[in-house]
Amino acid sequence: MNSQRNTEKWGCGKDEPHENGGHGSGSEFLLGLDGGATSTICVCMPLLPFSDQADLPNPPPILGRAVAGCSNHNSVGETAARVTLEQVITEALSKSCADRSSVRAVCLGVSGVNHPTDQERILIWLREMFPSHVKLYVQNDAVAAMASGTMGKLHGCVLVSGTGCIAYGFADDKEARAAGGGPILGDWGSGYGIAAQALTAVIRAHDGRDSQTMLTTRILKALHLSSPDELIGWTYADPSWARIAALVPEVKSCAEDGDQIAHNILVNAVQELTLCVKAVVERLNLCGADGSGSFPIVMVGGVLETNKSWDVGKEVINSIQKLYPGAHLIRPKMEPAIGAALLAWNFLMKESQGDNYC
Amino acid sequence: MNSQRNTEKWGCGKDEPHENGGHGSGSEFLLGLDGGATSTICVCMPLLPFSDQADLPNPPPILGRAVAGCSNHNSVGETAARVTLEQVITEALSKSCADRSSVRAVCLGVSGVNHPTDQERILIWLREMFPSHVKLYVQNDAVAAMASGTMGKLHGCVLVSGTGCIAYGFADDKEARAAGGGPILGDWGSGYGIAAQALTAVIRAHDGRDSQTMLTTRILKALHLSSPDELIGWTYADPSWARIAALVPEVKSCAEDGDQIAHNILVNAVQELTLCVKAVVERLNLCGADGSGSFPIVMVGGVLETNKSWDVGKEVINSIQKLYPGAHLIRPKMEPAIGAALLAWNFLMKESQGDNYC
User: Fold this and answer.
1) Nearest Cβ partner of A209 from B182, B197, B276?
2) Where are the stretches annotated Disordered (chains A, B) (predicted)?
3) Cβ within 8 Å, pair A208-B232
4) SS3 of A19-63
5) Is there a contact between B185 and A239 if contact means CB atoms under 8 Å apart?
6) What is this structure's pTM?
7) What is the pLDDT of residue A11?
């Protein structure tokens, strides 16, 4: 990532003494947090002067960055999630020689924010961690991912497919989302969805319900198992979705080697992901009346990363551009935590300049 | 159930004193256990004289019956599973005025037996609970379910669809199974599978990926929720499959009221269940060379129970009989635990008479 590039310029290295041990009296900071499925990342950015978003330095300056474990309360419970947030914030501020009272705003993008009550609960935790003048924002992690591709501007669509998948869109003051419900609620375009279908295909080939597939030998080898029967015990042993989703590279490599079942699973994932984007674009009318309007699609997550083999992301963008020729792809060069920090800057600026800017 | 019907005749009521506090010196017993997804049932049966299976009393005499919680080690862990087995066995024997040394054989039908290592592990637990002369058998719960429809004889096919689903078949000395892998491995004909698809349909209708469906209002009402968004938190809150599967009646009632999406989900479940049976029948050649051979299909589980609305079991048997006209339906009148006890009798008889009888 480029996130560390400008650290020295802004950092509090031993050779650069600062008044008050920080960045001079009156320095203010923004915190951006990315609460992902497996880790939580916090970055500390100086509060840049409000100006046109296009004038922001790209990449933005990052003073400190810290990483901790998962902070999704749905996965690890409330207590562990709070401890992790405390830890990662403390570390990022310490690395930036900043303290909590010098923070102007915090934006946390976190998975598991599906309902206003989720947002409110997390805001209460953050409120307890910061003085009352600090502005706090909690967003679904997809929103921070979008901001990482648009320098904080919320317009267009973002599609995330990692362990889970979700599409999110913004137009003027409206927003819309599709999918993001988790495995039980059918996120079939996600890494979990792809890999679960591959595991199912192995079982179906084994018991005679479907054709044989290369997935059998590849997946058994990857998991160090000797028979498809053993997959049942393997899936029961640990219900972590990320563990299932980690099999996506096996599916891609089988599809590249000509396995029809693996190919069909990926084609199905492309259709599902396209459908997610379509639902969001149509609800927000992002493509305009004649369907040719221009809008960005930010793509993020392991499933959509460019790769030399079967390229899910490329297929999805091709499929979307057939529907909406004006859609243009953005693959963010900065991490979602920086997106969250830019989002904090954007929200603050919007509040300081009135509601005409988003 | 009829399981208690003959208890008095064989029981150890206060008015019937027995030598040694049991059924007379030398009385021997069989235990049948059904280790289901939500409960474990144990029945104690007197050891009936070996004869033609057709001469067994129907229903067989049951001396004592006990019920405890789940004993699937995959679901509750090994320690809890063992405690539950101990408890239910002790109670059934106590009600029958029998002790462990008077038990001749025990057969446990339990979900989660998918691999020889599962069987071996449970046999070790049982071995610790009984003297060495007691014969012990551990089978997948589907096998006990079949025995409950065939008075212990293992020939033909059994289809179970409750929370999970599985097809099992026996012909001569061969056996075969299909599905039974659990939610991650695609048991789409199960109660879980049907309900998970219905929940997914509600989310898809809500976010614009699919048409509106009656399932939305019916399911939200059943779960006391006010918005589809809240389903995400609901599914995360408790990952129990039985809790999801409990929504099957809502799907059936929506399909009966003409909802196309609910109808399609049930049609898909019928196809999946038919495919499970087909895979087993073909592998065992149960239908004979010309496809018209006669064989029983035992059907068990909440999803397949006769009901006045959309009848999944009836549709499945219609669909199977189109493929195999000689298939005849058996809906067991006795519970799987009694099937397990009959299986113990059958295995014992087979051992005493040589290997020519199954």
Assistant:
1) B276
2) 1-27
3) no
4) HHHCCCCCCCEEEEEEECCCCEEEEEEECCCCCCHHHCCCCCCCC
5) no
6) 0.87
7) 46
Residue range B41-92, pLDDT digits in tens: 999 999 988 777 777 888 899 999 999 998 877 778 889 989 999 999 999 9
For helices B191-207 and B230-237, give the axis angle rounded to 10 degrees: 150
Most B CBs within 10 Å, among A117, A209, A274, A278, to test the B interface: A209
Q: Which pLDDT belongs to residue B354?
A: 65
CATH of A7-153+334-353, one of 3.40.50.2300, 3.40.50.1110, 3.30.420.40, 3.10.105.10: 3.30.420.40
Would an 8 Å CB–CB cutoff place A185 in contact with chain B?
A: yes
Residues of B in Cβ contact (< 8 Å) with A208: 176, 178, 279-280, 282-283
3-state secondary structure of A332: coil
Q: Does A181 lie at the interface with B, CB-CB under 8 angstroms?
A: yes
User: Is residue A355 predicted with pLDDT exceeding 70?
Assistant: no
Complex prediction ipTM: 0.86
Q: Are A181 and B208 within 8 A, CB to CB? A: no
B95 Cβ contact list (under 8 Å, min separation 6): B44, B63, B64, B65, B66
Please give the CATH superfamily to which domain A191-330 belongs. ATPase, nucleotide binding domain (3.30.420.40)
The answer to whether A186 contacts B196, with C-beta atoms less than 8 Å apart, is yes
pLDDT of B23 > 70? The answer is no
**Chain B environment of A177 (Cβ under 8 Å):** 207
The mean pLDDT of chain B is 89
CB contact under 8 A, A185 and B177: no
Q: B332 pLDDT exceeds 80?
A: yes
The answer, yes or no, to whether residue B357 has pLDDT greater than 60, is no
- The answer to whether B185 faces chain A, any CB pair under 8 Å, is yes
Q: What is the pLDDT of residue A63?
A: 97
H-only helix segments in chain A:
7-10, 73-76, 78-95, 116-129, 141-150, 191-207, 215-223, 230-237, 241-245, 248-256, 260-284, 312-323, 336-353
Could you confirm whether domain B7-154+334-353 is CATH 1.20.140.10?
Answer: no
Say what percent of chain A tops pLDDT 70.
91
pLDDT at residue number A354? 65
